[in-house]
Design goal:
The chain has 3 helices and 4 strands; from the N terminus they run H-E-E-E-E-H-H. The protein is α+β, with helices and mostly antiparallel strands. The protein has helices spanning 3-17, 103-113, 117-124; strands at residues 34-43, 54-62, 66-74, 80-90.
């Protein structure tokens, strides 16, 4: 099962498209210091053979210190093969306690992934 890898790559591409690079020092990108708290995948149908797999990403929840991304893995014709959620928590690099996201991080997520898109998407599932 490689759906999780595709989701992680999509999240990484989103970060880079918004100017958040893992190579940047923690002072320049403090939001990169976060951990995956939960990763859930519902396998809707087997993906057999080869071909394109598109990952749709949205916000299910955007809290002060955590984010839950919703996702759907689809082939080229839109058939859904997997859905799920990925929750991360930002940590303070000195204390390892939850810390607030920066305004830059919040603005990038809300502008691209939307504040309540997950609720609409869940209704369609």
């Amino acid at each position: 099962m490689r759906f999780g890898i595709h989701v992680e790559r999509t999240v990484h591409k989103f970060f880079e498209s918004q100017g958040f690079y893992w190579e940047a020092p923690i002072e320049d990108n403090p939001d990169k210091f976060h951990v995956v708290r939960r990763f859930e995948i519902d396998l809707e149908r087997p993906f057999t053979g080869t071909g394109d797999l598109n990952v749709e990403l949205w916000l299910e929840h955007f809290g002060r210190t955590s984010i839950t991304y919703g996702f759907a893995c689809r082939n080229g014709d839109g058939t859904v093969y997997a859905t799920g959620a990925r929750t991360v928590v930002k940590l303070d690099p000195k204390t390892f306690r939850p810390a607030d996201w920066t305004e830059k991080w919040r603005a990038a997520h809300l502008a691209v992934l939307g504040p309540a898109r997950g609720q609409a998407s869940t209704a369609q599932s």
